[in-house]
Design brief:
The structure holds two protein chains of two kinds. Chain A is built from two helices and five strands, in the order ββααβββ. By secondary structure, chain A is α+β, with helices and mostly antiparallel strands. The chains are: A alpha+beta, B alpha+beta. At the A-B interface, α2 of A face loops of B.
């Protein structure tokens, strides 16, 4: 499976925007765990210490926003493309 | 070496088990025990701490600080580390050696595999003292290994760090440690050892006779000169003290001009070198303002006069920085910053005035899993007492206190406060449920105050194990009972270090003073246009003098009547006087937030505050006159200052320019009108 990494986090992937990780995860949580194993610096940027995806970060499997497809329990198919995407911020008081 | 857990003190430790060595014998074991015990007396942030030494089953074990990190050898790439990293690590290694030498301990086995670097860039030198007593055996062992080396055509790491005089048979001493330091610096910069060979004989010959190869133009000449002096063949031609090496490396670092191509000088994900920003070249004698905004950090540099300012930054583009701290304890110049953005909240530090920042892979301040909550923001970074240079505190949102006892390397939640029965009933203020103020008692290591919005003031008298609400006399106009035990929306608490029993408090409505360690509070809003405000600082020389910036309460929260004024009391709050010369007095609807004001420690103290509109004002005469020193910054939420020098310099220099102060009349007492105090 491959992961699309946003620019702000490429510091933790050696500058790579797309990284491939071996494995056959059943769920998105498993897939992300495999990603953290290879690139441990990504975990705390994407998840809170309680293991939830941060409020303003979106994760897509293919074109599907996982918030609407089961969250971290979403099924992941072999060869899936997973994208970590920061939200567009708007309405910030600052 | 094992990773183990100390079940009594509930901490992970590194456990080194020394098998019984027939060459050492029982007396040798006792010597080794003695030396390990003596080395445990070395308390230094760059020296791995030995907790315990003991015997079991005929062997020795040593329980020591568990350091998570990589050895310097592992970190060195084939082409070496960037000069800044070599300098940063070298300074810490030299500092560790200096401490050991001061205690009469020679390391005798310094090498890159004996030096660990944590993810935050903190160096830990290992095996201090162990090498000393066993040195004769080890030297014999190393000498014997020459034969083995020649037989096996392999290299000996230890041999490669031996000084020429040691190879000649002289006992290892301080200069031989400095030689090894030179080898470590060279290896760090080059990625390979300075003296190489296929056999032990060739290595020894190179050490004795050859000069190390130059490392090319990428290495600053000044750093190369330091390395060469460490590697002088004759001990007398080297530096004579490790502290001299440390000072030389610090001088090189401070003079280093950072100008690199984007992408260069990356040491991996743990240190971020920022580009396309203006770095200040900070030198000893400079004075700095650290400005935290909702969009990043700026620095302003000046000198003793504090009249001309150079703006540096921004660092952490787009991230909110609500907490900053400068830690000049133990000879360091470390700046701490909390960064908050969509990728979470992180605690970062810089030892080179912003040219590079730590970027830990794992957040160091984090709530344990059983709490069920996640860190939202760090509102305060506070230093421990001067005699505890390794101690730091963080006040965070949701309201909690974290402590570090290893210079910010690791943090733990203060459970005594987190488990307080009041905590579930604390309510968030407008800025969130945050612990924003930390006030350690400088004279009592067990006492500390914290302030929480909206929880009130809490005090511990047993070093954080238990906490008691200390809010008697403080109003909470927004609650049915106006004087509850807790739940007040405290905005800031200050204490003068000479008078820890006396506290001043800026409340959400109300100015207060306590003369009994917070047991009771008295209203001192005498003569201020509003008792609502956020920022509050205490005069560093006069414990009776406090500064505030009142704002019109409650929904408006801007300077009263469009006039930006600082108010000062010089009599413990009996009366307050406005300070406005140089501040806008017309159509100035400004807000100064709780940590956006700071005071320096010069003989004639300077005051500084930043506004939510991004203006920064400074006074070098205790607030009598003001000038705007920056404009157009993002909203300012935090302001701190740092004097880059030592106290004797400061006193000598400022005394020359200190002007006599004319007395300022106190304004007549006038309490704010009740109509201004109505609630929300």
């Amino acid at each position: 499976m491959s992961f699309h990494i946003p620019g702000a986090l490429q510091e933790f992937t050696g500058g790579r925007s797309v990284v491939k990780v071996d494995g056959s995860p059943a769920t998105l949580a498993d897939a992300l765990s495999a990603l953290w194993t290879v690139y441990p610096g990504l975990r705390d940027r994407v998840l809170t210490e309680q293991g939830n995806i941060r409020q303003h970060i979106n994760v897509f499997t293919g074109d599907e926003d996982i918030r609407y497809s089961g969250g971290l329990k979403s099924a992941v198919l072999p060869g899936s493309e997973i994208a970590i995407v920061p939200s567009i911020s708007g309405g910030c008081p600052w | 070496m094992y990773r183990a857990h100390d079940e009594i003190l509930h901490r992970d430790v590194a456990l080194k088990v020394l098998n019984k060595n027939p060459g050492v014998g029982s007396s040798g074991s006792q010597d080794l025990l003695y030396e390990a015990r003596s080395s445990s007396a070395l308390s230094h942030p760059n020296i791995c701490t030995i907790y315990e030494v003991g015997q079991t089953n005929g062997g020795l074990y040593i329980s020591m600080e568990l350091v998570e990190g990589k050895s310097l050898r592992e970190m060195c790439t084939d082409t070496g580390l960037p000069p800044e990293s070599v300098l940063r690590y070298g300074i810490q290694i030299a500092s560790a050696l200096a401490r050991a030498h001061d205690r009469g301990i020679v390391h005798r086995d310094l090498k890159t595999t004996n030096i660990l670097v944590t993810p935050d860039g903190l160096v830990k030198v290992l095996d201090f003292g162990l090498a000393r007593r066993v040195s004769s055996e080890r030297f014999e062992e190393a000498t014997r290994s020459l034969v083995e080396i020649e037989d096996q055509s392999s290299m000996s790491g230890t041999l490669s760090y031996m000084a020429p005089e040691v190879l000649r048979g002289e006992p290892p001493d301080y200069p031989s440690d400095l030689w090894a330091l030179g080898v470590v610096l060279y290896e760090s910069a080059a990625g390979h050892l300075p003296f190489q060979g296929r056999t032990g004989f060739e290595i020894s010959s190179a050490i004795m006779r050859e000069m190390p190869c130059s490392l090319g133009p990428a290495l600053p000449l000044a750093l190369w000169a330091v390395i060469q002096k460490c590697l002088a063949k004759e001990p007398g031609q080297r530096y004579q003290r490790a502290s001299e090496v440390q000072a030389a490396l610090e001088a090189v670092l401070s003079a280093l001009v950072v100008h690199k191509e984007p992408g260069a000088d990356r040491t991996g994900p743990r240190t971020t070198v920022l580009h396309n920003i203006h770095h200040l070249q900070v030198k000893k004698g400079d004075f700095l303002l650290l400005v935290g905004t909702t969009k990043g950090v700026f620095f302003l540099r000046s000198n003793l006069r504090r009249t001309r300012w150079e703006l540096g930054g921004p660092y952490f583009h787009g991230q909110a920085v609500y907490a900053l701290a400068y830690d000049g304890r133990a000879g360091q110049h470390r700046i701490w910053a909390s960064t908050q953005g969509i990728w979470g909240t992180l605690l970062r530090s810089s030892d080179d005035f912003g040219k590079s920042w730590t970027n830990p892979e794992q957040a160091t301040v984090r709530f344990p899993g059983d709490t069920g909550v996640s860190l939202k923001n760090i509102w305060q970074i506070a230093l421990g007492r001067p005699d505890e240079p390794s101690v730091l505190y963080c006040g965070v949102e949701p309201a909690a206190l974290f402590v570090s006892r290893d210079r910010g390397e690791t943090w733990s939640l203060v459970r005594g406060l987190w488990d307080h029965p009041h905590r579930p009933r604390w309510m968030p203020g407008n800025g969130g449920l945050c612990l924003h103020t930390i006030v350690p008692d400088p004279l009592n290591p067990n006492r500390m105050f914290v302030a929480i919005s909206s929880g009130g003031v809490y005090r511990t008298d047993d070093a954080g194990c238990s906490w008691t609400a200390k809010n008697r006399g403080i109003r909470a106009d927004f609650l049915p009972g106006k004087y509850p035990e807790f739940g007040q929306c405290v905005h800031k608490v200050v204490m003068h270090p000479d008078r820890p029993e006396r506290l001043f408090l800026q409340n959400h409505w109300g100015l207060y003073r306590s003369d009994d360690y917070g047991e009771s509070w008295n209203d001192i809003a005498n003569g201020v246009p509003s008792d609502f405000g956020f920022a509050m600082v205490v005069h560093p020389k006069n414990p009776a003098s406090v500064y505030i910036v009142p704002v019109e309460s409650d929904e408006f929260r801007c300077s009263c009547d469009g006039r930006l004024r600082v108010y000062r009391t010089r009599n413990d709050g009996e009366s307050w006087e406005p300070l406005m010369r140089g501040l806008p007095q017309k159509s100035a609807y400004e807000t100064v937030l709780r940590d956006a004001m700071t005071v320096d420690c010069f003989d004639v103290p300077g005051l500084y505050f930043g506004t939510r509109s991004g203006q920064l004002f400074a006074s070098s005469d205790e607030g009598k006159t003001w000038q705007k020193i920056a404009d157009g910054l993002p909203p300012i939420v935090c302001l701190r200052n740092a004097w880059i020098g030592d106290a004797s310099d400061r006193r000598a220099s400022t005394s020359l320019k200190a002007r006599p102060r004319s007395p300022v009349p106190h304004s007549k007492a006038r309490r704010p009108s009740k109509s201004r105090r109505k609630k929300r």
